Amino acid sequence: MRTHSPETLSYAIEVECILVLLATGEKTALGKDLQHAYLTWQKLSPSFRRELNTRMQPCFKSTGQKELYECLIRGFDIWDYTQNLDGAPGWSINESSINQVLKHMGEDLMNLLHLMDETCVNHKKSSPVTSLAKFDGCSSVSPCDEGTGDQAISFRPRREEHSSMRRSSKEGNGAI
Length: 176
Known about the structure:
This protein is mostly helical. It has 7 helices and no strands. It is 66% helix and 0% strand.
C-alpha cells in the first residue's frame, strides 16, 4: 500500500483545512461554527459519539460528504489530543491560507454541519430514548439532548448567534 496515494493526500489536506479553521475560528463565521461544533462534539460521551456516527451514515448524499465527515471527526480527534497534550496551539496562519481553505471546502463544510444538526434534531423528534439507553439502562437521553440544563446540544449556533457572526464577518474579517 502506498502511503502517498492521491486518496491519502486528499484526506490529509481536508483534515489540515479543518485544523486551520479550528485554530483561527475567531476570524471567520465558518471557523466559529466549526469551533461550536467541536465544543458540542467534545461534550458527547464516547457511546453517544458512536451513535451519532451510526445515525449519520444513511444521511450522506455522496461519498465525498461521508469522507468530509470522517475528516471532520479526525480533525476533532487531533485537535482534542493536541489541546489535552499541549493546550491550545498558538498557530500563526496567513489570511491567504484561511481564504484558500474557505474556497476549498467552506460550502461543503457548512452543509455538513447543517446535516449533523438536522440528524440530531430528527433523532430527537423520532426517538426520545436512545437504543443505548434501552440496552444499558442509561438515562433516557439522546446524543442531541446531552448537555447543560434545558439546552439541547446543537452542532451549529442558534440563529441569532449565527446572524451576529455573519454581521461581524461582513465588517472585513474575510469570512464567508
